[in-house]
Amino acid sequence: MNVSLPVLDRVEASDREEFREAVLAGLARSPRAIPPKFLYDVRGAELFDAICELPEYYLTRTETGILADCAAELARLAGPGCALVEFGSGSSVKTRLLLDAMPDLAAYVPIDVSRHHLDATAAKLRRDYPRLRVEPVCADYMVLESLPADVNGAPRLGFFPGSTIGNLEPEDATSFLCRARALLGDRGAMVLGVDLRKDARRLHDAYNDSAGVTAAFTLNLLRRMNRELGATFDTARFAHEAFYNPVEGRIEIYFRSLAAQTVTVAGRPFAFAAGERVHTEYSYKYDDAGIGALAKSAGFTIDRTWTDPEGLFAVVYLEAAP
Ligand code: AVI
């Protein structure tokens, strides 16, 4: 029987199939790993918003402070009439700092995989910035190849805040920036938010908060597998684990099995040894040399870098190299 599903149900069904395939492949490989994008179901996104408010998680408020201070200069560097292109726009909260400083933008192009987020955000921005042309693109920015035709002609300013670049492994960070460089064109520029290397204790605490919100964020992935894939994870028998690896310059995040146990996922049994862990995220931290090398590898030069007084976080203005 050929049953045709409504569009939203079809999207949900294909998302679920992608999740199922990624989880089954990730649990079958050694060492086990599940890609970080699956942490962000509706509950995961709420928990991440709560992480951003935590006293230990300095990233969001520090970057917001830097952007508030440098927005006018960013606007001057970008010049009038450019199109602002945000990669992974979510709720576009930090973007408002740029929109306020750039009243003469040709357009704002938020790119996000979540149609729900895009529509809600576009509606709010159109209400709050009635003169702004908002051109949402529902896509995975890691594979996007073109922008809406009606922003052709305007110089393009990319925006990738939040240290999301840190969640990409170095080769993926380079290929993302190369793709962004191609999308933004020869007159393009990019504003990048990067978390900096620092005291290991400070980093450790940011990913092991005392209220346990980051642990809930990691373990929500198990709940999602139970709900969407009929898995049998008992979240009391797994724990969140996050630590700083100074050699690689990254936070590593896992869920760890507290006992020898077998869990069924989508009908398949997976045996876990006591102490065995499943990788869920890396969060790379950069220094000046690392940012410079990354920019260069993707065809950008660094024009300006702003940091906070403690040197925790950097906002970098990259220009397309000639
Ligand atoms: C989204 N990203 C930048 C966060 C980070 O800091 O790497 C994700 C995160 N995971 C746990 N806490 C925060």
Ligand catalogue: N,N-dimethyl-L-histidine
Q: Report mean pLDDT, rounded to a whole number.
A: 94
User: How far do the termini sit from each other?
Assistant: 57 Å
Biggest beta-sheet profile: 7 strands, mixed
- Tell me the helix content: 25-40%
Low-confidence stretches: none
Beta-strand segment tally: 12
Shape: globular
Topology:
Layout: H1 7-28, H2 42-52, H3 58-78, E1 83-87, H4 95-101, E2 107-112, H5 115-128, E3 137-138, E4 156-160, H6 170-184, E5 189-195, H7 200-206, H8 213-229, E6 238-245, E7 250-257, E8 261-265, E9 268-272, E10 277-284, H9 288-297, E11 300-307, E12 313-320
The chain binds N,N-dimethyl-L-histidine.
N,N-dimethyl-L-histidine binds next to helix 8 and strand 10.
Structure characterization notes:
Helix 2 packs antiparallel against helix 8 (213-229) and helix 3 (58-78) packs parallel to helix 4 (95-101). A seven-stranded mixed β-sheet has the order 3-2-1-4-5-12-11, with helices on both faces. It has a three-stranded antiparallel β-sheet with strand order 6-7-10. The chain has a two-stranded antiparallel ribbon with strand order 8-9. It contains nine helices and twelve strands. It is 39% helix and 23% strand. The mean pLDDT is 94. The structure holds N,N-dimethyl-L-histidine (AVI). Residues 51, 59, 162-164, 166-167, 207, 214, 217, 281, 283 line the site of N,N-dimethyl-L-histidine (AVI). N,N-dimethyl-L-histidine is lined by residues 51, 59, 162-164, 166-167, 207, 214, 217, 281, 283.
